[in-house]
Design goal:
The complex is a heterodimer. Chain A has 13 helices and 2 strands; from the N terminus they run H-H-H-H-H-H-E-E-H-H-H-H-H-H-H. Chain A is mostly helical. Chain A has a single domain, classed as ABC transporter involved in vitamin B12 uptake, BtuC. Chain B is mainly α. Chain B has 2 domains: 240 residues, no CATH class; 36 residues, no CATH class. Chain B is globular, with a radius of gyration of 21 Å. Classes of the chains: A mainly alpha, B mainly alpha. Chains A and B meet through helix 6, helix 11 and helix 13 of A and helix 7, helix 12 and helix 14 of B.
Chain lengths: 349, 342
């Protein structure tokens, strides 16, 4: 990702290869290795180490898809923090509420896309209300803002339990997204020479594609539009932005709307891929926390890298060390904090 | 000259009764005599429980109030001590259970909890301010999921059951009255040491670091070491609470250290007030009373909504919790306890 275009501060590093070239070579090798792992027919010793190619590639695909979901949730969280210094611990509740609303709308109208739209729009509206009614009153007091967001998450979780009870819901995926596709990935070769190809749910690939499109959209919005410019300026220096005549509160409201809306959107999309149940709010809150701690606060590309790391760690951990999977996530977080306390893409303040 | 020199110690060293303060003495007498009037239910479910959660809140108050580090991992620390008691002592879950006597198991459990707390502290002090709350929440949640998934050490979803409080000197310490006094004894110990410690060199240094870490670093203090040591001390308090908690419940499971419980500890400390060590005990009493009796008002179902709303109202109108409300209405009572600036 954007590690590639990191400026080469050291210039030529002795051996004639610049630091930038060395990194480029390194990433090229990594990409080649990944390509080989995915497309080649595995030798037996590798199958023996990694259980089977099917298990490994499925885990990687699941991890990347989950990363897409985590990215959608965490990008809102990181934007809100970066701009407003507001640790919104109710972010997981926004995800779950979006999922429930999407379920209701999709179930009643019969149109899944309508559910997705409702998840985004309703949660965006709720986000604006939260920002204007609650957080604006406590501006500049980040501890109290955090405490208030905890209070909101408790009340929200309890009220959602009251309305939707403790059951598990599954949002029905429309037909055109359902089914499985055969990927050009050979998992094994039968004794008669026929190759076995990997099949994977089409919906999950669509989720991943949507996450990538939204990620690019966010990047474009932040880097190419006027509002994005204001947001980036606000992340760097809020007071200066305000002094240059920008209505900071309008920018805040926009960011909160986008962040909360994305969480709601992710709720509907994730609720269709997985399931909707109480407790999911905590799971996605934890994911967003770890993703932004690892990736760096206030950075979209950091959220993408963090989500990829955590999603892969979670799914690979699930396959290879079932009862110690969480520890892997944990180790990533601790190592990041030990080496780069501000996160991989974070700026030190 | 000699006369004045001799009279000075008498003047500057007040009577020990004055030093403790009338409020503490009245409170102490009331708490010691409480079992005379209270039923067994009020003794353990209200009294003992409030004291245990007060101690947990106290460990958070110490970190937040004196160190400026708001932690959400205190229940995790207590849970580690509780799991240690179940693993080192006896349990009837047919897993581990080394059968150590309580006088080895309890100190070791508290020590392990304190070390775990130092590790959490060491991780979280690498960043500052609001990051601490995020990192500790992430640690608490991850530990909860780990305890739930792992069967080799934590016995997974069901956890450990059948943990018994010790019986010695002819007393079964799980009986209501002895257990209440046990909790009271530990609470007074923790409360008094934190009150004393806050005026010690270390306590004052910690508060100075809270107010201006850069200046303290420039003065040559090892800021990280002081903070991590504060985590160690908070870990001892939290560990004691964890040991009492597992003796009280007789069991420990991932639910004990869940995110709800972690947030409960924060709620207790914030509702009570983070400026003075008495706050968490006050908060614990309020929350435990609400937990017990609000069921009659709003029904068991919507209890969390009620407590969440109370919490929101408190955060909005009085950042210093009940102690802050008290200070608003009775300014002359607040002199010794309130320091400006968190």
């Amino acid at each position: 990702m954007s590690i590639l275009d990191r400026p080469s501060s050291s210039g030529i590093s002795g051996g004639g290869v610049s630091r930038r070239q060395a990194w480029g070579l390194f990433w090229l090798l990594v990409a080649a290795l990944v390509a080989w792992l995915v497309f080649a027919v595995w030798p037996d010793w590798l199958n023996a180490i990694l259980i089977s190619k099917k298990a490994f590639v499925s885990a990687v695909l699941n991890g990347v898809t989950l990363a897409g979901l985590y990215f959608l949730v965490a990008s809102g969280f990181t934007l809100i923090f970066g701009l407003m210094r507001n640790v919104n611990l109710a972010h997981g509740s926004l995800y779950l509420l979006g999922a429930y609303i999407g379920y209701e709308v999709a179930n009643r109208t019969g149109y899944w896309l309508l559910g997705v739209a409702a998840g985004f729009i309703v949660l965006a509206a709720i986000g604006v209300v939260m920002q204007v009614v609650v957080f604006r009153r406590l501006e500049g007091d980040d501890l109290r803002q955090t405490l208030v967001s905890i209070g909101i998450s408790i009340v929200a979780a309890d009220l959602m339990l009251a309305v939707w009870a403790g059951g598990t819901y599954q949002i029905a995926v429309p037909e055109w997204l359902d089914g499985a596709v055969t990927l050009p990935v050979i998992t094994a070769v039968r004794s008669n020479g026929a190759s076995v190809f990997l099949t994977y749910p089409f919906y999950r690939i669509a989720v991943l594609a949507a996450a990538i499109v939204i990620g690019i959209g966010l990047w474009l919005m932040l880097n190419k539009t006027r509002v994005g410019m204001m947001i980036r300026a606000g992340v760097d220096d809020r007071a200066m932005l305000s002094a240059s005549g920008v209505n900071v509160h309008a920018v805040f409201a926009i960011v909160f709307a986008v962040g909360a809306g994305l969480a709601g959107f992710a709720g509907v999309v994730g609720g269709s891929a997985l399931s909707v149940a109480p407790g999911e709010d905590i799971r996605y809150l934890l994911a967003s926390l770890v993703v932004v701690i690892v990736g760096g606060m206030g950075s979209i590309s950091g959220a993408a890298i963090g989500a990829l790391l955590i999603g892969l760690a979670e799914q690979l951990g699930l396959v290879y060390f079932p009862t110690y999977g969480v520890v892997l996530t944990f180790i990533i977080m601790v190592v990041t904090l030990a080496i780069r306390p501000q996160g991989i893409m974070g700026k030190s303040r | 000259m000699t006369m004045s020199l001799q009279s000075t110690p008498g003047a500057t060293q007040p009577n020990w009764l004055d030093k403790i303060g009338a409020g503490h003495i009245f409170l102490g007498i009331a708490l010691v005599l409480y079992p005379l009037v209270a039923s067994d239910f009020f003794l353990t479910q209200i009294g003992g429980y409030s004291l245990i959660f007060g101690m947990l809140g106290l460990s958070l108050m110490m970190l937040a109030g004196y160190g400026g580090m708001v932690s959400l991992a205190q229940i995790t620390v207590a849970g580690i001590a509780a799991y240690c008691i179940a693993i080192f002592g006896d349990n009837n879950s047919h897993l581990l259970g080394f059968g150590w006597p309580w006088w080895i198991a309890a100190p070791v459990a508290i020590l392990i909890a304190a070390i775990a707390s130092s590790l959490i502290g060491w991780i979280s002090v690498r960043t500052e301010g609001i990051y601490t709350i995020m990192i500790t929440l992430a640690i608490a949640t991850a530990t909860f999921y780990f305890a739930q998934q792992n069967y080799a050490i934590f016995n997974g979803h069901s956890g450990y059951a059948g943990v018994r409080a010790p019986a010695f000197w002819g007393v079964n310490w799980r009986d209501p009255k002895p257990f209440y006094y046990l909790c009271l004894g530990f609470s007074v110990l923790a409360y008094a040491s934190i009150l004393y410690g806050s005026r010690s060199t270390f306590g004052l240094t910690l508060q100075a670091i809270r107010d201006n870490p850069r200046r303290m670093r420039a003065l040559g203090f090892n800021v990280t070491a002081h903070k991590v040591f504060a985590w160690f001390l908070a870990g001892i308090t939290g560990g004691m609470a964890g040991v009492l908690l597992v003796w009280f419940n007789g069991r420990v499971s991932p639910g004990t250290i869940g995110v709800d419980a972690a947030i409960d500890v924060l709620i207790i400390a914030v509702i009570g007030g983070l400026r003075h060590p008495i706050g968490p005990f006050l908060g614990a009493l309020v929350v435990v009373l609400m937990q017990t009796f609000a069921i009659d008002l709003v029904g068991a179902e919507r209890f969390n909504t009620l407590i969440g709303l109370v919490f929101l109202v408190i955060v909005f109108i009085s950042p210093d919790g009940i102690l802050g409300l008290w200070a608003k209405f009775k300014p002359n009572f607040s002199q010794e306890s309130l320091r400006p600036g968190l």
